[in-house]
Records
---
Amino acid sequence: MAEKVCPIWVGYLLASPLRKLFENPQKILSPYVEKGMKVLDIGCAMGFFSLPLAQMVGSKGRVICVDVQEKMIRSLEKRARKAGLFNRIETRICHHNSLGLDDLREEVDFALGSAVVHEVPDASRFFFEIYETMKPTGRFLVTEPKGHVSEKDFEITVSVAEQNGFKIIESPKIDRSRVVLLGKGNVKRKYLQH
């Protein structure tokens, strides 16, 4: 589904434990994630957020990790095994035109899209597919790096999400990021290809 993807070598930098000093997954995600949840990590790369999510959902929860790059997914699987969290994680390699989540209709409690929307070729389809996976009470946290995504471009992203049925719940603060927490709105919608 990606138009321009993160190079593998950058994936190693993004998975670095040093990143936690300025972007702590536990602090960012704990307001939204509870034990037993089914969570979706879109554009998971090597699992910087996936592994903490797996700890947070506990043994009865599940984290579905989706990325377009097989090498990123394989690295995540290796890291999950080493951390003893592999049994809580399901990995999926998506395609350039679909996340491949049709089997998850209204099953997801929480979804995370960290620094991924600016990489997808069709944001409308991206939000449409995620909306379909969300439970009526589900939440979707979208973060984009300020260095890559302008305020105007982020406003367009949020508008596309709203056109696909999402509503803004809040705009949390994360350093060096543009952030919005979305929930399902009460609208009839269908995917319109732009």
---
Amino acid sequence: MDVRLARWDNSLAVRVPRSLVAELGLVGGSPLDVSFEAGALVFRPSDPAVELERLVQAITPYDRHDLEAAYDDFPTG
């Protein structure tokens, strides 16, 4: 499949054909690992576990909820 680099501000971008996007199950904003291997630029979907770790690290105290307060309205005994 032949694609061309395009200028995007001060960077270069590659448009990924719809057929490949569908085959890989990607959507806009999907994280990709990019590497240079044996003279080739290689794009791979990122490992979901790595993405989950990044999301967990981004949790702020504002995002956390007091679990005890969440259960105060539940009947006991």
---
Amino acid sequence: MINDITNETKSKMKATLSVFEQDLQGIRSGRASTGLVDRLEIDYYGQPTELRQLANISTPEAMQILIRPYDVGAVKAIEKAIKEANVGANPNVDGASIRLNMPALTRERRQELVKVLHKRMEDARVSIRNIRRGAIDDLRDFEKEKMISEDELKRGEAEIQKLTDDFINKIEELGKVKEKEITEI
């Protein structure tokens, strides 16, 4: 009973951490990263489709992203989506490929990115805490219905709290690494 709740809680927390890691890839640091554009939604023949499904995305140089669509007909739609997403670089269409030359980050822009990072970290921590609250509520319901004892409830709450602390620490560590990456010149 308690193990089921603990395992379910752990998998939900892992999913939250995974989403947070993907969010971090979308926050620009000092170098060009494919994570900046690979999840962009492109209107591909009326269907919203992620860019990574439509093109090969690479970083041939430290400050450049190269996008090679599998279908040359998608170039205009990709260019439009990049302009609308405001990723901080204008797309240069070169026949069948698109190049994004990333400008150097200004100090103000770095500070803005750190603020965005801190907000995303807080959102992830809140998600983890909400998962914890749900799990503890489930445990308390089991205890009320006499499905588990009071001792089992305390043990379960302690396990859930330990999981919560572990995942919040992982979020903090990832955030510190990303902040260092953003602020490095």
